[in-house]
Structures are given as structure tokens and as C-alpha cells.
Design goal:
It contains 3 helices and 17 strands. The protein has 2 domains: about 120 residues, Lipocalin (Beta Barrel), CATH 2.40.128; about 120 residues, Beta Barrel (Lipocalin). Strands 1, 2, 3, 4, 5, 6, 7, 8 and 9 form a 9-stranded antiparallel β-sheet that branches. An 8-stranded antiparallel β-sheet has the order 14-13-12-11-10-17-16-15, covered by helices on one side. The chain is α+β, with helices and mostly antiparallel strands and about 290 residues long.
Length: about 290
């Protein structure tokens, strides 16, 4: 065997392993600079890590690949080109997470954006250490984020106020269809400005379906918790399938529950439309002409 030939090969292998070790080590959960809570923190993606690769993405754009988890179970984010909204649940004891995100805009994504969305859809375990968050999408693969400043650019759908909202005078944003004990089914398209309701104290009512402005009347009995809603479309844009279903169920509403800033309008004994106060600046209901 040619010793002189083997020696350079061994040196190359050792150098490669050293580089790999250093590269991996920079993504170890070490030396956190601060303790950041999971909820309420803006998380900026640093890398997509798998068993054999470390891919840094988004370093050229501070506004891309960001996530924000709200305490109420809503989540917001950015891919490379699109705003995201989603729902998530955590099991802190098992460190498990279930999250589902939907685009609120529909621009084409570059390959890295598609990679991010694909891996995000498979996340099931989280690890939080200091200001570093790992969302694992496989046994050896994870998205690594670091805490950053929330500059207010997240496109929120629901208000994060702790002030109790009243039934009348509040712009209510639909969270989804639901039945008692179940998670709300989100309606498409996802947008901060659609599926909204506003009840005025005098009996007038305004709203948005999937595509149209609505105007009508409501009758309310606060003692019996009953409500009737009669809405008509003020514009004539074709409704989406979800929009048609929404209008049908809204017309059948007969009672309500309001607690902890969650409004439920029941259209059957166990089924309801679930709303939360709309985020500031997202309502266009005051633009609808009054009666």
C-alpha cells in the first residue's frame, strides 16, 4: 500500500469531519443570550437542519421566515413571500406541538420558501432553550429559530386585548365552524378582513362574508341569550363554497354565548359559529352605508 497516498486522504477526511463538527456545533443549544417565552416572542428562522445537512435560509431578508405564537392558540408568520396564519396546540409535559398554517396572501414561493412551508407542516416536537427554539419535523431534522424583536409587521387576524368585549359595538371576526368540545374549522379564503360581524345597539347589523359586504338587522334578548340575524348582501361578488355555507348558517342563528372574548352563535343545538374580536385596523364594516 502506498503510505504517501493514504496519508493525504486521511488528512482530508479528518478536515471534513472537523468542518462538519464545527458547522453542527454552531447550532447546538448553547450560550443562550436571554430567556424568551414560547408565546408572544417573534422567532426568526436560522437554519433548516437534518441528519446530514444544515441549510441557512432567510439571512438576506429580516422580514422572512418568522413565527409568532399567541397565548390564545393563534399563530402568525411569514414565509419568504407570504403572510401566514395558523392554529396550534402544545403539550408542555411531552414537548409536543401540533400546528397548521395557512397563507393569507398567495405570492409564488422560491424553493427555499416551499422547503420551509413543507417542514413547518410536519413539526411535532419543540425544544426551547433560552432564546433558541427548535421545531422538530423528524427524528434528526428541525427548524431552528432565534428570538428577535416583534416590530409590529405580523398581520394579525384577532385582537390581543385583554379588555372584555361587548356583543354590540365590537367587530367580530369568525374563527370557524365548531361543535361543542371541538376545534373550530377554519373557513377559506384566510384574510383578516372577511367573515366579520358588527352588531349595533339600535338593531342594525353589518358584516363581511367571503367576498361581499353585508347589511341587515338583528334582534337580541340578553336575558334569554337569544338572537336573530337577518342579513342581505350589498355587493354581488360570487361567494366561495365556504362563503355560501357561512351565509346559510348565519341565517339560522337563534342563540348566543359570550365569555372570555369568545362569541358563539348557535345555528343548531350543538353547532355554532365562533368569533373573536377582530384585530385593530382590520375592519372595513364602518365603510358600509348606514340605514
Amino acid at each position: 500500500m502506498n503510505i504517501n497516498y493514504v496519508k493525504p486522504q486521511m488528512q482530508a477526511i479528518i478536515l471534513f469531519l472537523l468542518i462538519l463538527f464545527v458547522s453542527c456545533d454552531q447550532y447546538e443549544l448553547s450560550s443562550p443570550t436571554l430567556d424568551a417565552p414560547f408565546t408572544g416572542t417573534a422567532w426568526k428562522l436560522e437554519a433548516v437542519v437534518s441528519s446530514d445537512t444544515i441549510k441557512t435560509i432567510g439571512v438576506d431578508n429580516e422580514k422572512s421566515y418568522l413565527l409568532l405564537f399567541e397565548p390564545d392558540g393563534n399563530a402568525y408568520g411569514f414565509s419568504y413571500n407570504n403572510h401566514l396564519w395558523g392554529k396550534y396546540t402544545l403539550n408542555e409535559q411531552q414537548k409536543s406541538i401540533h400546528a397548521k398554517f395557512y397563507p393569507m396572501t398567495y405570492a409564488l414561493e422560491p424553493p427555499e420558501g416551499e422547503l420551509f412551508l413543507d417542514r413547518l407542516s410536519k413539526v411535532h416536537v419543540y425544544v426551547l432553550s433560552g432564546d433558541v427554539l427548535r421545531l422538530h419535523f423528524s427524528e434528526n431534522g428541525y427548524l431552528q429559530f432565534r428570538a428577535t424583536e416583534d416590530d409590529g409587521s405580523f398581520k394579525r387576524i384577532f385582537s390581543d386585548t385583554s379588555e372584555m368585549a361587548s356583543l354590540t359595538g365590537t367587530a367580530w371576526k369568525l374563527e370557524g365552524f365548531s361543535s361543542r368540545g371541538g376545534e373550530p374549522d377554519m373557513l377559506k379564503p384566510v384574510s383578516p378582513k372577511n367573515y366579520q360581524l358588527l352588531f349595533e345597539s339600535g338593531g342594525d347589523a353589518y358584516g363581511k362574508s367571503s367576498t361581499n359586504h353585508l347589511r341587515g338587522k338583528h334582534t337580541l334578548d340578553e336575558e334569554k341569550k337569544t338572537i336573530r340575524v337577518d342579513m342581505q348582501t350589498m355587493t354581488k361578488v360570487n361567494e366561495t363554497p365556504d362563503g355560501k355555507l357561512y351565509l346559510d348558517r348565519l341565517s339560522k342563528v337563534y342563540r348566543y354565548e359570550l365569555a372570555d372574548n369568545v362569541l358563539r352563535l348557535y345555528y343548531s343545538k350543538e353547532e355554532y359559529l365562533q368569533y373573536r374580536p377582530a384585530a385593530a385596523g382590520t375592519s372595513s364594516l364602518d365603510e358600509i352605508p348606514a340605514f
